[in-house]
Amino acid sequence: MKFLHRVFVFLLISTLVLESDAWFWSRRRRRRAPVPACSTISSPVGSKKLGCSSPYFEGDCCYYWCRSGYTKVSGTTTKTCCSSEGWTEFDLVCERTDPCPPPQGVIYAKLISSRCFFPYTHGTTCTYQCRAGYKPLHPERTTWTMTCSNGQWIGYFEYCNRDYTQTVT
């Protein structure tokens, strides 16, 4: 009976050692290098990639953002490598946005918005009103706003004229 018990213990220990990656068997088995799961990807026009590099393995994430001078129009900013499907859906679109020159002809007016500063990029909005002692050419417009859009100022521009009905001190 002791003999059978010893054989059983020997077989049990041998099986555990052989099934594990321990002992000398781990030196004999060749470990396979992980196989890249996704192909190389390029960055969309006007964008920059961060957080990943080739080769791409399952679960790798690449993060994108629009470069300076470009604005995100639509899409996601993350792309993930999935082994069976390849890359996840990715549709980032960055649009070129030229800066505007400094606003011209804003004489006798003062800037009243805090978000109007150089460089005047796409979407910058500047709001003005006439200085004291001056009135707008069109009295119904006490303030006016101009917005930078693809390198040009859009919106209504008002002229300020000297108000001779008021006395300036």
UniProtKB/TrEMBL annotation:
Name of the gene encoding the protein in the UniProt record: LOC118430639
Disulfide bonds: 38-81
Matches recorded under PROSITE patterns: SUSHI
Protein name, per record: Uncharacterized protein LOC118430639
Record InterPro entries: Sushi/SCR/CCP_sf (IPR035976), Sushi_SCR_CCP_dom (IPR000436)
Annotated signal peptide: 1-22
Sequence ranges assigned to domain Sushi in this UniProt record: 36-96, 98-162
Key words of the record: Disulfide bond, Signal, Sushi
SMART domains: CCP
